[in-house]
Design brief:
Blueprint lengths: L11 E2 L5 H7 L6 H15 L10 H10 E2 L4 E10 L2 E9 L5 E10 L2 E5 L3 E4 L12 E5 L2 H15 L5 E4 L9 H11 L12 E5 L3 H10 L5 E5 L5 H7 L8 H11 L7 E7 L7 H11 L5 E7 L13 H13 L4 E3 L30
Parallel strand pairs: 1-2, 6-9, 9-10, 10-11, 11-12, 12-13, 13-14
Antiparallel strand pairs: 3-4, 4-5, 5-6, 7-8
Bound molecules: iron/sulfur cluster (SF4).
Amino acid sequence: MSAIEPAHDAPLALLGATREELCARAATLPGGRGQAEALHRSAFREGRFEPESALPAAQAAAWREALAFDLPRVVRRECESTATGLLEKAVLADARGLEYECVRIPMGRERESICLSTQVGCAMACRFCETGLLGRLRQLSAAEIVGQVVLARAQLGWRPTQVVFMGMGEPLDNTANLIQALHVLTDRAGLGFARERLTVCTIGRREGLAALHALGWKRLNLAISLNAADDARRSELMPATRALPLQELQELLISYRPRANFRLGLHWCLLPGLNDTRDDARRLAAWCAPLGRVLVQVIPYNPGTQPITRAPSEDEIARFLGWLREEGLAVRRRITKGRGVMAACGQLGNAELRGRAPRERGR
Ligand code: SF4
């Protein structure tokens, strides 16, 4: 039994299961496979679980006993206009009232990303990140991860065409639930996202990368939150990276490549005075050299409630991008979206949650 599979008589979390997993549970339930497929359809398409609408009360009760269906409560929604459309952050709450967030990011040309959380808070404690100030309060289940997408489509009117795991939490600190969520998100009988529409963003964790690699999904996108190309600076900015020094991370990424033309994403949060010099650009290029195709995304720092520096100016951003190009790197500047509603990169996290549970700092 996997770590996330419930004991046989425990309710199966409907939103954390593929249709086949649900049908396997349906063998002894009223209506069997046909009823399971109907319940699966309405749960994933409409965000509803109403066995009473099709079954007599006693039979519906049997389904209610066998399955768990919970969508998070929407605490509030905050919007910001951007050049490509309306960015929106939804603050959600679990049954205990712990809040986590997902973000709709308009990409233009009728594309939109949904940025998902995998944990409430995060144990990695990256110093430039608001979520890191919370500590890890709890893991989100696969159903809660997928539930953000179902809720967004059914209740918020979002139409995500791609999914990025860049919200609250380190996805590879919750690997079993992340991987189950990937299976459910790509289930053709359900939400049906193509694998190339999914991007996992991580600081790089040994076991998690091995588990993703073992999936053998050639088209799944991977991005590493790098931010410094020397161990001393990286561990100062991201204490949890001490567990995986850059040379070892580089070796893992060299052997990770799932297909010949795979392009690895590298995220660089640009922090004035901390990682924005000519030498930083040179070191980054040297570290990337053995990795094959990479795309460096430069993300201007978005100061949170405890800033470690200021936001970079447009000149500073352009200068750093220019140095990276001179070094021969493919680069893209991430346009800042959502800063005004604390929905931009590194800004997710509710200051009121700090101290509500013991902090579990990076390992
Ligand atoms: S940047 Fe990511 S890994 Fe680091 S503290 Fe924030 S959420 Fe966690």
